[in-house]
Structures are given as structure tokens and as C-alpha cells.
């Protein structure tokens, strides 16, 4: 469909073609050497190519590239195909994923791999529409990335990097997290995507946002498409009389312009864009955690870990016995509640005064500011655990670090 009128959109075919050429030329010269890109180019089998890109995209959600590389290489070495992943246990998946965060991503990835093997004859869907419809955990962005990079479908992608680049290119100053603006950005991405090299173009657009058009202190001087960037022009030239103001886009009360209450701040330059609604502060939570220690065989210390429920935060991971606390509890009451909780595990009384306070550990999840109040309790003799409770086991320190435990528990 023809793009809507107005200065926010790419309505000039010649400009679109020039932008594509500049961006792809820059990408060919400057792209980072990343393992999933190598596999996407070198792997001749379409399903394995799609799988390689899929794993990288799931890992890269909410996680920086530098962190992902080592996890990705270990994952692909352990499970080089969909079929190999489908045969793995969730415990194995959680163990390898430990430290990447957002653990439901790994769980859904394995569930989707099993579905491809059992219901789709081992064949990956080839279009963004089918990928999103048939694979659990694959949203619009991931589907577009897999389809364009692995299968050459001319479909755009919109992630955080692309949002930033497009909002600056076209001075889109409305709330970039709103559904209406996101829909417009998807329309824009689908207009821009290069028809002959869609996967490279989408990666180039994301690469630009990750390395040049960064949130703070963008490298505008190195940008290959700055001549097409309205925010850069506005910073450089202001609003000369012969050039219409970008906010005078000819459609009246424009839903993409910055609010009248938030005028252009010349000190911010291109970082006036994108604009986001203020984030809600993370909610504060307190949890009492007890490290139970006993002497195992050869007198080596062992620690009790228990498995979290199969749904919710940190689903299926292992942790030291823990108990959510009310925010305003006094330390004495915290000890009593934790002692009662531990008594249920061990089937024998636990004296609150026997719990040794070690300190507090703070861990920030995306939406939770979590404080772990850490206690220690050395045990004499053996302890029989109630099999009716959640799965539990005694582990050495090395076994603990090899288990599917969260980064927060490693801090504890």
C-alpha cells in the first residue's frame, strides 16, 4: 500500500532506494563478526539455518550481544539441530540457560522445537506469518527476523534498535511504546526492507542502532544514512525558513509528532527521539533465604537446594529454601517465619535463634527490586526430607554451580 502522506513517512521511492544502498554498503564493510551470522550464511540446510537464527534471536531478547555469544556457542555445540534440542530435558536446558535471565525463553524454545519435530515433521515454517502462528514463544519480531534472514522473505522487523533508528530518521516524537506508533513503525519497516537482501537489510538496521545510533552519545558523524535523518538535519540546521518544520507534517493533529508540551530541546540533539512513557518503578520485594549446610561423604560440605514451581518467576530453577516476607517485618519475626518454613522441610523443630544472619543480597529483575535476607544453618547428622514437598537435593559447591540456579542464588 502507498505510504501515508506527511513528513514522517518514506514516500519518495528514490530516497528509499538511496537509503537501502547506503545502509547495505555500510553493513558489508562494518558488520560485526557474530557466530549466528556465520551459521546463517554457511549452513546449506534451510531448517538448520532457521534454527541457528531462531536460537540467537531468543537469546538476544533482553540480553546484550557480548553476553550471548558464549551461551550461543555452547548451546549450538550441545544441540546443533532441532531434533537434538527436542530430545533434551528441561533440566539440561535450564542448566545451560542459567545466568541469561528470563528463563521462560529457553523453556518455550524447547517446547517449540518439540512441536516442530512432532507435529511439523521436523520442518521449520518458512514465512513470518506461519512462524508466529505455529511456534510458541515466537512473536512478530522474532518471526520476521527468522523469515528474512534464513528464508529471504521480504518482511521488516521492529525491535528496540529499529525503533530508535526510525524515530530519529523521521522525528517521531510520540510515545514509541504505544501500539499505534509501533504499528506505524512496522508499516515503515516493511516499506524500507530491501527486496533482494531482506535479511542483510534488517540486520543492518539493527546493527546501526546497536553500534552507531545508540541511545546516548550517538555517533552521527559515522552514520551512513545521516543525510536521510530528519533529527540530524534539525540538530545541524535548525528550521530554516525555506524548509518546512518536520512537525508541520500536513495532517493536522499528528499522532506521531512530539507533544506540544515537550518541544525540541536543542541541547539533546537527535536524542530527543525516541520518546517513551515514564517507566513504572520496579516493585520492592523481600525474601528470606537459608543456606542449610551438612557434612556429606568425605566430610565435604553439602547444601540443600529446592526446585521452584514450573510456572512464574524463575520457573523450574533451583534455589536455597526461601520464603517471601512482608516489607515491614522486624528481624526477630523474620527469623521465626523462616524457622517455621524450614521445619516443614525437615520435619523437626528449627530454633529461630539458631539461624545465623549473614547479610542481604540485592538483585534487580526487570520489574522487581528483590532483596534476599540471607541466613545460614549448619546441621549435625542426616536430615530426612519430606518427599511430598517440592523436589530437593543436597549438592556440593561445584554441583551447585553446575545446576540450573539463577544469578541471584549465585550471589547468595
Automatic annotation (TrEMBL):
**Coiled coil: which residue ranges?**
none
- Per its UniProt record, what SUPFAM superfamilies does this chain match? DNA-glycosylase (SSF48150), Nudix (SSF55811)
UniProtKB keywords: 4Fe-4S, DNA damage, DNA repair, Glycosidase, Hydrolase, Iron, Iron-sulfur, Metal-binding, Mitochondrion, Nucleus
| Keyword Transmembrane helix in record | no
The HhH-GPD domain extends over 59-211
Annotated GO molecular function terms are: 4 iron, 4 sulfur cluster binding; 8-oxo-7,8-dihydroguanine DNA N-glycosylase activity; adenine/guanine mispair binding; metal ion binding; oxidized purine DNA binding; purine-specific mismatch base pair DNA N-glycosylase activity
What reaction(s) does this enzyme catalyze? Hydrolyzes free adenine bases from 7,8-dihydro-8-oxoguanine:adenine mismatched double-stranded DNA, leaving an apurinic site
Task: Choose one Gene Ontology CC annotation of this protein and give it.
Answer: nucleus
Q: Per its UniProt record, what CDD domains does this chain match?
A: ENDO3c (cd00056), NUDIX_DNA_Glycosylase_C-MutY (cd03431)
Report the subcellular localization: Mitochondrion; Nucleus
Q: Which domain of life is it from?
A: Eukaryota
PROSITE patterns in the record:
ENDONUCLEASE_III_2 (PS01155)
Q: Which family does it belong to?
A: Belongs to the Nth/MutY family.
Designated name of the protein: Adenine DNA glycosylase
* Species of the source: Lanius ludovicianus
Lineage of the source organism? Eukaryota, Metazoa, Chordata, Craniata, Vertebrata
Amino acid at each position: 500500500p502507498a505510504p501515508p502522506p506527511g513528513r514522517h513517512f518514506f514516500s519518495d521511492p528514490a530516497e528509499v532506494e538511496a537509503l537501502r544502498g547506503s545502509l547495505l554498503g555500510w553493513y558489508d564493510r562494518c558488520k560485526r563478526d557474530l557466530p549466528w551470522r556465520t551459521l546463517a550464511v554457511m549452513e546449506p540446510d534451510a531448517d538448520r539455518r532457521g534454527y541457528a537464527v531462531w536460537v540467537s534471536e531468543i537469546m538476544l531478547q533482553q540480553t546484550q550481544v557480548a553476553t550471548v555469544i558464549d551461551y550461543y556457542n555452547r548451546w549450538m555445540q550441545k544441540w546443533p539441530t532441532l531434533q537434538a534440542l527436542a530430545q533434551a530435558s528441561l533440566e539440561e536446558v535450564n542448566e545451560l540457560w542459567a545466568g541469561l535471565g528470563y528463563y521462560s525463553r529457553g523453556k518455550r524454545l524447547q517446547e517449540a522445537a518439540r512441536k516442530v519435530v512432532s507435529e511439523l515433521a521436523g520442518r521449520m515454517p518458512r514465512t513470518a506469518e506461519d512462524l508466529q502462528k505455529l511456534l510458541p514463544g515466537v512473536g512478530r519480531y522474532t518471526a520476521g527476523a527468522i523469515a528474512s534472514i534464513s528464508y529471504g522473505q521480504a518482511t521488516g522487523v521492529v525491535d528496540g534498535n529499529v525503533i530508535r533508528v526510525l524515530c530519529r530518521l523521521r522525528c517521531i516524537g510520540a510515545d514509541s511504546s504505544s501500539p499505534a506508533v509501533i504499528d506505524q513503525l512496522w508499516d515503515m519497516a516493511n516499506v524500507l526492507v530491501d527486496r533482494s537482501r531482506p535479511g542483510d537489510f534488517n540486520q543492518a538496521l539493527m546493527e546501526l542502532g546497536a553500534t552507531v545510533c545508540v541511545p546516548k552519545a550517538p555517533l552521527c558523524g559515522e552514520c551512513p544514512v545521516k543525510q536521510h535523518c530528519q533529527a540530524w538535519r534539525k540538530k545541524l540546521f535548525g528550521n530554516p525558513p525555506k524548509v518546512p518544520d518536520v512537525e508541520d507534517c500536513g495532517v493536522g493533529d499528528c499522532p506521531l509528532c512530539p507533544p506540544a508540551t515537550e518541544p525540541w530541546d536543542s541541547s539533546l540533539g537527535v536524542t530527543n527521539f525516541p520518546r517513551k512513557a515514564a517507566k513504572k518503578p520496579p516493585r520492592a520485594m523481600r525474601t528470606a533465604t537459608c543456606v542449610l549446610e551438612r557434612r556429606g561423604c568425605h566430610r565435604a560440605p553439602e547444601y540443600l537446594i529446592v526446585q521452584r514451581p514450573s510456572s512464574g518467576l524463575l520457573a523450574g530453577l533451583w534455589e536455597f529454601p526461601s520464603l517471601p516476607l512482608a516489607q515491614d517485618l522486624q528481624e526477630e519475626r523474620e527469623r521465626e517465619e523462616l524457622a517455621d518454613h524450614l521445619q516443614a522441610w525437615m520435619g523437626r523443630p528449627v530454633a529461630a535463634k539458631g539461624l545465623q544472619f549473614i547479610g542481604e543480597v540485592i538483585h534487580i529483575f526487570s520489574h522487581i527490586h528483590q532483596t534476599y535476607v540471607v541466613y545460614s544453618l549448619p546441621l549435625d547428622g542426616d536430615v530426612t526430607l519430606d518427599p511430598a514437598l517440592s523436589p530437593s537435593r543436597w549438592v556440593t559447591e561445584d554441583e551447585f554451580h553446575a545446576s540450573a540456579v539463577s544469578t541471584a542464588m549465585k550471589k547468595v
